[in-house]
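Reopening this ticket.

The earlier resolution said the output was attached, but the attachment link was broken on my side. Pasting everything inline this time so it's all in one place.
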Amino acid sequence: MSDFMESYALWRSLPFPGLRRGENLLRAGENLALIHGDLALADEHVTQVILFVDEGIFRPSRADVMGLLEGVISRLERFGENMAVEEREVVDAHYRYAVLLHQIYAEFLRIGAP
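Inline output:
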């Protein structure tokens, strides 16, 4: 459970990845602003983990959080390599955050399931 707690502590200390005002990256038919919104939704669902860690209450979201995160990760992967450095940094920050959420929520489901 220590890997879970390390990932959890990292997530709680990280700021949510941001978009600069007016930023509207488009790649492979994807809009980063839309992916950003889906990542925010997934982040909201993952907050169920806080209740589990703080109070031991296992109450997973009714939403398909794992599917949502897998979709976000897949969409971010399609952005490709041909980007300016600052664009790549924004996409990579979103990708790392989504992977971290996926890891935490998967462990939460594994540990908390009866």
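Reporter confirms the inline version is readable. The CA atoms of residues 6 and 24 lie 33 Å apart. The helical segments are 2-13, 32-46, 48-55, 65-77, 85-112.
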